[in-house]
Structure formats: structure tokens, C-alpha cells
Amino acid sequence: MAPPLLNLTGIKLTFGGTPLLDGADLVAAPGDKIALVGRNGSGKSTLLKIAADMIEPQDGEVFRQPTATVRYLPQVPDMDGFASVRAYVEAGLGPADDPHRATYLMDHLGLTGEERPSDLSGGEARRAALARVMAPEPDILLLDEPTNHLDLAVIEWLEEELARTSSALIVISHDRRFLQRVSRATVWLDRGQTRRLEKGFAHFEEWRDQVLEEEEREQHKLGRQIVREEHWLRYGVTARRKRNMRRLGELQSMRQRFRSHRGAEGTATLVASDAAESGKLVIEAKNIDKSFGELTVVKGFSTRIQRGDRVGLVGPNGAGKTTLLKMLTGELAPDAGSVRLGVNLEIATLDQKREAASPEETLAHYLTDGRGENLVINGEQRHVVSYMKDFLFKPEQARTPVRELSGGERARLLLARVLARPANLLVLDEPTNDLDMETLELLQELVAGFAGTVILVSHDRDFLDRTVTSVIAPDGAGRWVEYAGGYSDMLAQRGGTKLEDRKARNGQAAEPKAEKPRAEASKEPARKLSFKQKFALENLPKKIDAVTASIARLENNIADPAFYERDPVGFQKTIAALDKERSDLAVLEEEWLELEMLREELEG
Q1: 281-362+406-505: which CATH architecture?
Q2: Cβ–Cβ < 8 Å for 145, 431
Q3: In this structure, what DSSP letter does residue 144 have?
Q4: Average pLDDT over residues 488-494
Q5: Which Pfam families does UniProt cross-reference here (predicted)?
Q6: Span of 167-176, 310-319, 332-341, 579-588 with lowest mean pLDDT
Q7: What crossing angle do the helices spanning 122-134 and 152-164 adopt, rounded to 10°?
Q8: What is the SS3 assignment for 201-225?
Q9: Strand partners, 64
């Protein structure tokens, strides 16, 4: 076995209170591909910085091969003092390194090298930082969240590049599919200590659950043993004093172990506040277009989203995912075509930029909008501190300013606010950013089991596969195509091709692909709608509009707080009438939808 390039042993570090690192180990040998995993705030980034010689531990041993080169990718790269991206990237090269390697990486990462660092977006800055640390082909490559702000095409290319590298790799990432593809070993940092599995991340979750179950059993056995020893000391037959003193010492030691045991971290409780059921048709888009100058972002796109659908939007950065999302939700008007929103929609939105909260605002004030100390969640009043605990916040953090939160805590706070609002349509733009594995799993369960409708933008392929019922992806020249199933299903329907080929990554547009038919074309002669069907199709929209207006009028009536006191019987009749109108609307919408689909099938 080759000697290790890096060996951290018994690392300890405390920033007051509970130790952050309490005897952590980390070993990397040539060719290792290690996934470093753990909860947000567990110390993963700190341990990686110790490995990079950026932080000095309070105790423990740090060994690095004297001749080994180390490169570290921070979460936020510092480009101050560099006139161009090329200057920044080439500053990471050593005297014997090949400068053509830097050009190769920038080219494949979509950078010319002439960009000014101050003008870069978050994704471009991340790609420049990746080129800088990968260009020297170091002996040890330390990557902290390398996939943040990257689109799927670049993530897939990065996976292939890291699989080929001879560097020993230690990587922190919340992208489960990425970790599965690049890792061959997993180090779990939990409660200040590390455990190592000599298998890739694909085996981590099963192993973690086994470890925690075994730990719980051992703690239970220790508690039973303490009870037996206490009973013996009180009621057992008197033995030699020396023997009694020994057993008393052992009992005290067991008590200390039992009391000092740090249980596993709690898990967040994610529950969305329910709103009244929306109509069966949630969103209908017909031949919508959107351009910005000469750039066509969306061209001739049509879709119908019905209640209960979970739709994922994927594509490279700049393809227009957020623009399409805003058009579908009515926030942005199309240049051509039409978007129709269903009735009774209650929309809750998680913004990608995570800028909704003021840095000086406290957590409690942000969650309640400054309206007292309570929230109404699913019709029940809850104190804000109790609700915060569901999202792993401590009671004392209620008065903490938002600026003091980590990226993961800020993501949980925004989720808490969004899920507190009654909604039957969740719009989530990059919801998985900065979430730890456990919170990600709970968000996944929430989305998959949500009774309403979900539209989400994500680069997390594993999350998409586990949650969505269809995927909308770009197909070149502003065209977008909807595929049934998750991300892997989309790839299968595209013939196994990824979102962009190498030519497209270098700045050339991808060739448009023909949309795959959802069903085999009928070999029967083309039929036409009957006179009765045509009449219904023409008149159903008028009926739907009339029922929609009636529903709005009834809802306005029952919104009057004095209505019930003034006329209890009339109030109950209005409620019954409203229920009937909503039921009639669902029937009319379903009938219109079936006829419209039949018309398109016959005309297509």
C-alpha cells in the first residue's frame, strides 16, 4: 500500500462550547477519491481548510508529504487583484506546469480568459476557480462544493474530468449524484469525529443508518447495565471492600459515558401549509414566445399542467429556465402566445437568489412578517420558536440577525417561510442549494407527497429523479420539450444524450432535435370533431368564465366578517353554493381539456 499523501490524526478544534472537531481523522493516499459528508455546521469545510494548511488545529497531528502539491477550492473564490480570468487561473500554475492545461480547462468550462473578474456571475466565478485549482494537476485536490452555481452540462463534464485525474481527491458536495459518480470512499464527519467507509457515496445512506441503529442499541445496553450495577451496590451480598470500590469506580465511569454521549443530530420537520384545492387545470401555455433583443429564449412552447403534477425545469445557465418559469406563473408576459392560470391558485415561491431576508432582520421577525410571536400552520396557531425547532433552529436563535446564518441555515430559514404560507402551487427555484443530505431527503419527501402542484428548477439530477413527474428541457434555438418522468427518463428519451454535447459547451448552439411522440401515431384515417363536440369546445370557455365569476362573487360574500352574524342560514347556503360551483368548474375544465386534446390529436 502506498504511503499517504495526507494524514490528519486526532484533530481537535473548539470555538467555545461544544467541540467542532473532537478527534477527527482524514487520510488520503495517491489515487483516492473521497466524499467528505456530514450535516451543515458539522465542520466539513473547517477540516478541509486544516488539510489545506489554512487553519491550525488546537490538537492532533497533521502530516503532508513534503513534495506533494495541494490545491484547495473555496466556496467563495477571491479574485481581487487580477485583471482577467486568465491571469487568475494561470497564477495557480507552478514553474513546471503546462500553461496549455489552463487554456484547455477554461475552454471546456466556457471561459475565454479575457473576462474581468468583477463582471463574473456566480457560476462563471466558480468555473474560473475550478480551472485554477485543476490546471496544475496537483497531488491532492480539495474541493468545497464544486458544483454550486454550475449547470448540468458543466457538472457532467466535471464528473468525467475528475474520474480521469490522477490527483487524490477529497470533495464536499450536496449533489448526491455527483458524489456517487466521483467517489470511491466516504468519510462521515459526525459530532466532531470521523468514520470511514471504503466504498463510494452510493453506499453511504444504508451504512449511516446501520451505524446509528447500532449506536442506539449500545446506548440502551449501557443504560441497562448501569441499572444492574446500581441494584448490586444497594442490595447485593457484601463482598470485599476493595472489590466494591472497583465496581463503584466502574459504575461512575459508565454513568459518565452515558451522560456525555452526544446523540445524533435531530432532523428537520418539513410540512407545507395546505390551501384550498385548486382547479384541475393549473396552468395552460399555448405557443408562447419570449425574446430579449436578438436572443430568442422561448419559442412556440405549449404545455398543460394539471393539479398534482410535479414539473422540473432543467438546462444550462442562461438557457432561460427562470424566464420560462416566470411566464408560466404569470409573473412575466410572453411576447406572443397565451398563458392561462387556473382558478383558486395559492402560490408560494422560493427564490433562487435567496435575497428576500434583510441581513439585519431577526429570524422570528422574518418568519412572522413582524406580526407578533405566532404563526398559523395548517389552521393551528404555533409559537414561532416552536416552528423554528422543526427546521433545526435553537430557541436562542429567534433574535439572531439573518446575517449571522450560514448558507445552509439561510436555506432552511427560507424554506420555513415558504412552507408556512398556505399554498396549492409550490414554485421552487434551485431549492436544494446549501441543504445538507438529511434536510434534502425530507424536502424530497415533501415535494413527492405534496397534495398540490409543484414546479421546480434544479440541477440536482438525483432530486429530480426522485420527485418530478415530467421534465422540461431546452432543445436549441429557444425550443423547449417536455418529457415524461425524471431526469434519467429524459436522457433515455433523448437517446442517452446529455443536455449539451461538447460542441455546444464551446459556445455553438446545439442542433434542434425532433420531439419524441408521446404515443404511436394512429394508422387510422384522420377523423374530425363532431358538430356536438365542436359546439361544446367553442362554448365551454364561456361557461368556465361564468362559473369562475360566480365563484369569485360567492367568495367575496363569505369574506364579509359580519355575514354569518347577520344571516347564518344564508351563510351556510352560500358555502354550499360555492362548493357546488367549484365542483361544476372542475367538471367543465376536465371536459374542455379532453376535447382540446382530442382536437389537437386529430389536427396533428
Answers
A1: 3-Layer(aba) Sandwich (3.40)
A2: no
A3: E
A4: 87
A5: ABC_tran, ABC_tran_CTD
A6: 579-588
A7: 10
A8: HHHHHHHHHHHHHHHHHHHHHHHHH
A9: 6
What whole-number distance in Å separates Cα of residue 526 and Cα of residue 602?
6
C-alpha closest to that of 428 among 487, 481, 367, 352: 352
In whole angstroms, give the CA distance from residue 104 to residue 147: 19
The CATH classification number of 531-603 equals 1.10.287.380
Nearest-angstrom CA–CA distance, 113 and 93? 15
At 513-529, the pLDDT tens digits run 334 343 333 334 445 67
Cell numbers for 351? 427564490
- Residue that wins the pLDDT comparison between 592 and 96: 96
Cell of 296: 430568442
**Grid cell of 78 as nine digits:** 477571491
Fold of 6-206: Rossmann fold (3.40.50)
Take residue 188 and report the three cell numbers written for it: 462521515
Sign of CA dihedral 29, 176, 432, 389: negative
Predicted TM-score (pTM) above 0.90: no
Q: Is the pLDDT of residue 506 over 60?
A: no
* Region for residue 336 given its phi and psi (left: phi exceeds 0; alpha: psi -120 to 50; beta: otherwise): beta
Question: Would the CATH topology of 6-206 be identical to that of 531-603?
Answer: no
- The cell numbers describing 550, all together, are 360566480
Q: What is the pLDDT of residues 266-322, one digit of tens each?
A: 555 666 666 667 788 899 999 999 999 888 999 999 999 999 899 999 988 778 898
